[in-house]
What does this fold into?
Amino acid sequence: MKPRDIVVIPGDGIGPEVTTAVQRILEKAGAPIEWQTYQAGLTALAEGSEVMPQETLDAIQHHGIALKGPCTTPVGKGFSSVNVQLRKRLNLYAAVRPVRSLPGVKTRFENVDLVIIRENTEGLYSGVENEVTPGVVMSMKVASETACTRIARWAFRYATHRQRKKITVLHKANIMKLTDGLFIRCAQQIHKQEYPNIEYNELIIDAGCMRIVQDPAPFDMLLLENLYGDVVSDLCAGLIGGLGAVPGANIGDEHAVFEAVHGSAPDIAGKGVANPLALLMSAVMMLNYIADQHSDAGARKIATQIRNAYDQTLEDGCKTRDLGGELGTDAFADAVIERLG
It folds into this structure.
């Protein structure tokens, strides 16, 4: 792998613990990464900066890639989500969350293999809200043809590159005829004009969620607008063991941020029991992204090595508490390192 400077945002709560564990694994795997550490979230506020410091954004823009730990978002008050700010200000319009069954992690379903693609910049989740009058508030759902077409094309291109066979759009166009209607029309057009070889279908989202939890096997890739994508990706994580076992990426045309999608878990911060697997899996996605973008076969080799190592670790029964085991953060990292080969 070619040496690279990569921004790392440790985050809040358990973020610094899992980030350190992942950095240690990547170092032992031979990834020649020079980490450029920057802050965001409560940690940045505690240091007297903004929740989303401009210097952090500048660093990601300069280096192009970041690995990010979880950042706290206040519920119902306080500052806006760090994740939402990152996605909007860096135009990281494609959220990618692969969900697959893991060896040694027993759940209701076996052989789950889904990829959720979520539009990351519009819809209700973008947080455009205002108070109409005291006691009456409004959220605005925004959809543009540009963004809807862009994410549809990105999803079909991803499907082609990753040799996926089918894309299912989940929507509520029966009620939200303009916004969700635009979303599915753009997907239909991209399918028909550019990727007719990929199987395509649509489901109303409530019925789609029911079918997923009944049997996820018929699904391959899911394409959703912003808020639906957030909800459904967490739902699908529940099929394979929870958010501690799912990676995430936010990708734009020029920059990409890879992150653990779980919360900052302040109740267990500093106790050494947090599961670093989700961030480690996100780091593997990051290495594969580097391989794709820069024709770096070494990055692909290290990504495969790490993935094989954590798969074997789980298969051998070495798990953290959230997955039914007893290992702490560092002990799990040690177990993965032992299996790097």
The radius of gyration is 20 Å. The CA atoms of residues 52 and 70 lie 13 Å apart. The chain has two domains: 1-99+241-341, 108-239. The domain at 1-99+241-341 is CATH 3.40.718.10 (Isopropylmalate Dehydrogenase).
